[in-house]
Amino acid sequence: VEDIKEDSQWIESEEIKPESVTLNKKLNTSLIKCGDYSIKYVTNEEVLNILKNRSSTNNLLLNAEHSHSDLITAVYEGGLKVWECTYDLLNFINDNDIDLSNKKVLDLGCGVGIIGIFSCLKGTTTFFQDYNSEVINQVTIPNILLNNIELDKCAFYCGDWKSFLDLLRPTFVNE
């Protein structure tokens, strides 16, 4: 386990507005089926190809991915892949027929966003959070669009968890 350096410069949390994200209809996608639901998502390889063709601001994500590292403290937190536990949680929610309608869900460390997408399809308002804004813009939001989910049922955030808590707290304290 890598020691967290006290002088690490964590990314301050901020809300991301999805209006500037467009969906390329020619993206390579994959599919996860869970019960009556089919969830489309952009493949990891496709995202890497997109990032390679973008400006140098994405080099940190590409470097992490090319070094086969899931976690680089204060740089990259593994958002370009579907984690194995995602399937376990999907099956648990589905197999136990958990009613999510009209609930609020936080997909913390959402990455590809499979759990949040599944929650949206089951009637939630979902807050998607990932450390890197590139993950939200290049993966999470396109996956929301691929699944025809209304963007007004979603909110998107990037940055570290401590500042995210401070940012989101007013949303829940006032209710």
From TrEMBL:
Keywords: Cytoplasm, Methyltransferase, Nucleus, S-adenosyl-L-methionine, Transferase. Its EC number is 2.1.1.85. It is an enzyme of class 2 (transferase). It is found in: Cytoplasm; Nucleus. InterPro entries: Methyltransf_16, SAM-dependent_MTases_sf. One of its GO terms (molecular function) is protein-L-histidine N-tele-methyltransferase activity. GO terms for biological process: methylation. The keyword Nucleus applies. The keyword Transferase applies. One of its GO terms (cellular component) is nucleus. Gene3D superfamilies: Vaccinia Virus protein VP39. PANTHER family: HEPATOCELLULAR CARCINOMA-ASSOCIATED ANTIGEN, HISTIDINE PROTEIN METHYLTRANSFERASE 1 HOMOLOG. Belongs to the methyltransferase superfamily. METTL18 family. This is protein-histidine N-methyltransferase. It comes from Asbolus verrucosus (Desert ironclad beetle).
